[in-house]
Amino acid sequence: MAITYHAGRRIQGTSTDVEVFNSGTIDTTSSSGNTIITFTEGGVFKPTSAFNVEYLVVAGGGAGNGGSGTGGGGAGGFRTGTFSNLSSGTYTIIIGTGGSSAGTAGGDSTFSTITSTGGGSSSTNNLGGNGGSGSGGGSGGGTGGSSSPVTSPVQGYAGGTSSSGGSYNSGGGGGSSAVGVSPPATGSAGNGGAGTANPITGSTSGVLSGGVYYLAGGGGGATGGVGGTQNVGQGGLGGGGNGGSESNPNAVGTPATGYGSGGGGGGASPNVGTTGSDGIVIIKFATSGNTYSLGGKPANSQVGSRFEETDTRKMYHRDDIDFKEEGGAEATNYRSESWYEQLSGETP
Questions:
Q1: 110: closest CA among 44, 197, 19, 13?
Q2: Res. 333 pLDDT band, cuts 50 70 90
Q3: Dihedral Cα 197, 199, 204, 208, nearest 10 deg
């Protein structure tokens, strides 16, 4: 059965309606009459009636590749929109992880029918990898990866193509709002493409710049070859990692920092890739009249609410923090009468 809300702050449901979730990975806030829920790990969203839900789904960013003159990782796909009258039911949220090693793409993020594709990462032959945003091409004219699959609106952009002629200057990874930069013939690697301003009003998830939060920037490309002035690619706005340099062993590529961003090209020392960052899912809806749960005890209940598991007869009372089981180790200062008898009118 679904969670049922009754008068008198009484709530009922079976134990299978309230799967355990890690509350530390879910943040619920209110802003201007709206509820905003941020998922940084997987979970479920269970509306108890149909209502409009705005969403932001960002996939994990691709890793920057390792080695001399390697391209920056592509940003994870960035998709946003609104479900009109999303029906009651259980909607699984999956959060894509960032690419963890050289050549590893980011993981996909999902909410309902929306899937954002993980960011691309360059292959060993220096061709850019496809993904939500493509990774940058590696040294010697490697082409940048493309944004794939194509969505409407687009979820990301292509990576930059490296310069040719053995200059070892790579392209930047594509960002969610701009292509990765293709570098000039000599002297510089390409910067990562810029990320996108977070459209969920009131949310502070992302990289702050000029009072606006950005997500899903592409990683900067790495330079190669010894000697001369070499300018590594800078990560795209939104948390893309910077590229590394072979001429300066201390200038190694840096990991992504913003949600859904690509890692920087690794350079030659050490010859390893840099990690992309994990994705994120944010949903927003009008607070008034819209009830839901997050797979745990009902999240939008009032202090003093009582929850009954109808199959186990366990009773829970909500204090000013969370639900506590009657008679459980965390239960304190609760009334001594049977909660079940109070709620059901039956003698246990």
A1: 44
A2: very low
A3: 10
Q: What are the tokens at 307? A: 């929850």
CA–CA gap between residue 41 and residue 294 (Å, rounded):
12
Q: State how far the Cα of 55 lies from the Cα of 261, in Å rounded to an integer.
A: 19
First to last CA, the chain: 21
Q: Are strands 78-86 and 51-58 parallel, antiparallel or unpaired?
A: antiparallel
Instruction: Read off the pTM.
Output: 0.79
Q: Is the pLDDT of residue 1 over 60?
A: no
Cα–Cα dist 301/320, whole Å? 10
Q: Would the pLDDT of 228 be above 80?
A: no
Alpha carbons within 13 angstroms on the beta-carbon side of residue 148 total 13
> In terms of pLDDT, which residue wins out, 240 or 302?
240
Cβ–Cβ < 8 Å for 78, 240: no
CA–CA gap between residue 265 and residue 290 (Å, rounded): 46
Contact 77, 59 (CB under 8 A): yes
| pLDDT over 70 (residue 269) | no
Taking residues 165-169, report their average pLDDT: 65
CA-to-CA distance for 88 and 49, rounded, in angstroms? Answer: 5
Question: Any residues with CB less than 8 A from the CB of 98 and at least 6 apart, and which?
Answer: 60, 61, 62, 63, 76, 106, 107, 256, 261, 263, 275, 276, 277, 278, 279
**φ and ψ at 83, to 5 degrees?**
-85, 125
Q: Concatenate the DSSP letters of all residues of 56-114 into one string.
A: EEEPPPPPBPPBTTPPPPPPPPEEEEEEEEEPSS-EEEE-PPPP-STTPPPPPEEETTE
Q: How far is CA 273 from the centre of its chain?
A: 21
Q: Is 60 exceeded by the pLDDT of residue 342?
A: no
Whole-number pLDDT of residue 331:
45
Which carries the bigger pLDDT value, residue 293 or residue 91? 91
Q: Is the pLDDT of residue 218 over 90?
A: yes
